[in-house]
Design a protein that fits this description.
6-stranded antiparallel β-sheet, 43 strands, 9-stranded mixed β-sheet, 43% strand, 688 residues
């Protein structure tokens, strides 16, 4: 599949694409990973190339791995390819959270399964192709500096006793050596580098925030030197290196570096030009971190990080999800809506649910779908995946802009979910917390290390995390909101600054509620434009419209719907003069009351027809019909409510037309209101 030599790729993703974390993962014991793997190899990533799959649904990255040892399986070559989700192809990009992403030169132990994706012929090679058998847990990364290894849940200090031997005991086979390799802590004789301090002590990641590191012995220039940050994706069990382009200056006593995406709260490390390293005595605090796309710089091939931002994708100010039908009618819809409202209230970023869809695939298709997975679609141990898809454009000859053009979410339906809103206990995982976390990635937030925050790298079973942390989750999202509403990129429309977050949790968007007498019955009609988590619509009746409302009937709701639905209910024992109230109840026991209407049923009911002429000149005439004498009061007002004329009309059964002399009026639109104390009428008048 790989046909380009090492480091000659035109564009590829590093940084926040490397999600080796507890992000929505269920811990898989080593024994289970060994059992599920077709092959287990030790090796190093030496090249990578991204491409679209055969159906143009998703971007994948082929990582060429130089094989050192074969611990299980029939791997007979010294190089293989490991296929991972996400990457950049030209000016299109994709990030999946969580998914395994690999960097060139990363070394470790791979737990693999046979490839199941359709690879276009132009991207095929003669190498065997595999996929991680356990998502991010399918790779144990070696730390070449201190001689340890780590995966999203564990840190290993001795490869022989903690990795090689358990695999050998379970498979019954000793490993085969393809190329000699031994992991051990690196020591540099005579290293004299010292890290004494850094400032500021609290920063943000992936936002170009500048950190100054003070000390001695760093070297007069960077050379092969690096600055390492605690990796937020695994809580600091490993380190990530700042890009060379993020190192602004380097002297023997001071380094200035931009804090990269994926940097988490923890110690920092300087690796000097001679290979010596020194770690800080205190921790750097990273309050929030933004996702970055990282590609080769246009001018010199150096890797450069780019911020991402949102646009008005749906013409309503942001992005509209669509539920696959199964999800729309499931217990997952209510907690998903609660999660949307929580983020909206905290950041004002416009994300909503617009409609249901028949789309049941994870694909680049213009549909922002929310659904449950099919079969074993999600790898073992994965709770959910949130996908952001991006488009880019050139902003000058040596710069790029990127925006989110589609988002998808898929949840594992084999998980023991707590759909709430009650607390989570035991071995269950909280659906609302999982949705909040993945929506945070959709907001373009990366992981942090803060147990009080939604974007903390880990989500444990039996716990809830449904509240945004103001200094991290909210502040990070608002940072993205600010640039997405003030600075347009790639000629895309700005995201809206006017969002009604409370409307996200309203059970029904009511278009109309009206009623009328029909023979011996009263007919009640109403229409909704959308329904979220609706159980039923209840109609109540009262004599005075203030209190004493009693239930007279109910109609089942449509659970989750985003198209107009019409309802009706018959009151077969109506009052002569009755008031009706419509109330919508949702599945969680919450309710929303709508407007109150009245129906008057007297047989001698007054009837008034439309006024003429209209447009009016001076006098208007009203056709009337009444079997009794009635006094009608009227009022003529402007559109803004200014009273222009009032009067009284006396009508009996012998009068079939009432006349009102209209005072001189300027050209415009006016309202004529009439009432008797029992009936009221309103008409719109036009003056030429």
């Amino acid at each position: 599949m790989l046909k380009t030599p090492l480091l000659t790729l035109s564009l590829f993703i590093l940084s926040s694409f490397h999600l080796k974390s507890q992000c929505l993962l269920v811990k898989l014991p080593l024994e289970q990973r060994i059992e599920n793997a077709t092959a287990i190899v030790e090796g190093r990533v030496v090249a990578k190339q991204s491409f679209w799959d055969e159906q143009q649904h998703n971007i994948f990255t082929a990582n060429q791995v130089e094989v050192y040892k074969v611990l299980a399986g029939e791997v007979m070559t010294d190089h293989i390819e490991v296929l991972t989700r996400g990457g950049i192809v030209g000016l299109e990009a994709q990030i999946d959270h969580p998914s395994l992403q690999l960097e060139p030169y990363e070394t470790g132990l791979f737990f693999l399964k046979d490839n199941q994706e359709k690879i276009p012929s132009a991207n095929r090679s003669n190498l065997p192709v595999y996929q991680p058998s356990a998502g991010p847990q399918g790779f144990v990364k070696y730390n070449l500096t201190d001689g340890t290894a780590s995966d999203p849940f564990m840190k290993y200090k001795d490869l022989t006793s903690e990795l090689y031997r358990p695999v050998e005991d379970q498979t019954g086979h000793a490993y085969r050596t393809i190329k000699d390799f031994h992991l051990q802590a690196q020591t540099v004789a005579g290293s004299r580098s010292t890290l004494t301090s850094f400032n500021p002590t609290t920063v943000t990641g992936g936002t170009d925030a500048l950190l100054t590191i003070n000390g001695s012995g760093f070297g007069a220039s960077q050379g092969n030197g690096q600055v390492h940050f605690s990796n937020a994706d695994d809580g600091g069990a490993s380190f990530i290196a700042a890009l060379n382009s993020e190192i602004i200056s380097w002297t023997d006593a001071e380094i200035q570096v931009q804090v990269p995406s994926r940097a988490g709260t923890g110690i920092i490390r300087v690796v000097d030009n001679g290979g010596g390293n020194h770690e800080s005595a205190t921790s750097l605090t990273v309050t929030y971190s933004h996702i970055n796309l990282i590609s080769d710089a246009i001018s010199n091939g150096n890797h450069v990080s780019y911020n991402t931002q949102h646009r008005d994708d749906d013409g309503k100010g942001g992005y509209s999800f669509q539920y696959f039908t199964e999800f729309a009618n499931s217990s997952g819809a209510p907690p998903f809506m609660r999660a949307l409202e929580t983020w909206c209230s905290g950041t004002n970023i416009h994300l909503t649910v617009w409609n249901n869809t028949s789309v049941d695939v994870h694909a680049n298709d213009g549909v922002n779908v929310v659904r449950f997975d099919n079969g074993s679609e999600l790898s073992s141990g994965t709770l959910a995946i949130g996908t952001s898809r991006f488009s880019g454009c050139f902003n000058g000859p040596n710069d790029l802009d990127w925006y989110v053009n589609e988002v998808d979410m898929v949840f594992n339906d084999d998980i023991d979910w707590n759909f709430g809103p009650g607390p989570t206990g035991g071995a269950s995982y909280d659906f609302e917390s999982a949705a909040l976390h993945e929506l945070g990635h959709i907001h373009q937030l990366a992981h942090i290390v803060n147990p009080n925050a939604v974007m903390h790298f880990g989500l444990a079973n039996g716990n809830d995390q449904r509240i945004l942390d103001a200094a991290s989750d909210q502040a990070g999202g608002q940072h993205v909101y600010n640039r997405s509403t003030t600075s347009a990129v790639c000629s895309q429309p700005l995201m809206s600054t006017s969002v009604n977050c409370a409307a996200l949790l309203l059970p029904a968007e009511l278009l109309d509620f009206y009623g009328y007498a029909d023979g011996k019955n009263n007919m009640l009609h109403w229409e909704t434009a959308s329904e979220i988590n609706v159980r039923e619509h209840v109609v109540e009746r009262s004599e005075n419209g203030v209190n004493g409302f009693e239930r007279i009937g109910a109609v089942p709701g449509s659970t989750n719907s985003f198209s107009n639905i019409q309802y009706q209910l018959t009151d077969s024992a109506p009052l002569p003069f009755g008031y009706y109230r419509l109330t919508t109840h949702d599945m969680d026991g919450q309710f929303e009351r709508h407007k109150i209407i009245s129906i008057f049923r007297r047989d001698d009911q007054l009837k008034i027809g439309s006024p003429s002429p209209n447009p009016v000149s001076d006098n208007i005439f009203l056709p009337v019909s009444t079997p009794r004498e009635v006094i009608i009061e009227y009022q003529l007002t402007s559109q803004i409510g200014q009273i222009l004329q009032t009067g009284t009309l006396k009508i009996d059964q012998n009068i079939h037309q009432a006349e009102i002399e209209i005072q001189p009026l300027p050209k415009g639109i006016y309202l004529l209101n009439l009432w008797t104390g029992q009936e009221d009428f309103a008409f719109k008048l036009f003056k030429k």
